[in-house]
Amino acid sequence: TILGKIEQAHQRQSPEDEARLDAEFHMAIIEASHNVVMLHMMRSMFQLLREGVFYNRQVMFCQKTRRMTLLDQHRAINSALQQRDPDAARAAMLAHLGFVETALSDQQKAERNEAVARQRIWHERQR
């Protein structure tokens, strides 16, 4: 299964494989939804999804606890889908999306703070 391959990549600590498989996992969910409009839209944007997921994964990979949280969230989504429990699937997906949004926002804030700190250091050295 794709989830099994994600788990193997996680154990190998291979962010590139995890990113690629993460995109495939998301695409498989969309395909399983049988939502034709969403399917056509996402197929046309699949490369962008893969590139976006890779970037996100690189950001997420910098903290080991985040990687584990992502894996656990994918397991929860997969389990809910396998059990055909739409409420659990929705809850798991919303938790996943919320986590990713917060983690990326936190990373962007940290990057902005670092840039400001570098500018301050540069200005101090110019005095």
UniProtKB/TrEMBL annotation:
A molecular function GO annotation: DNA binding
Does the keyword Transcription regulation feature in the UniProt annotation?
Answer: yes
Instruction: Provide the alphabetized UniProt keywords.
Output: DNA-binding, Repressor, Transcription, Transcription regulation
Q: Has keyword Zinc?
A: no
Q: Which InterPro entries match?
A: GntR_C (IPR011711), TF_FadR/GntR_C (IPR008920)
Looking up Pfam families in the UniProt record yields: FCD (PF07729)
Name of this protein: GntR C-terminal domain-containing protein
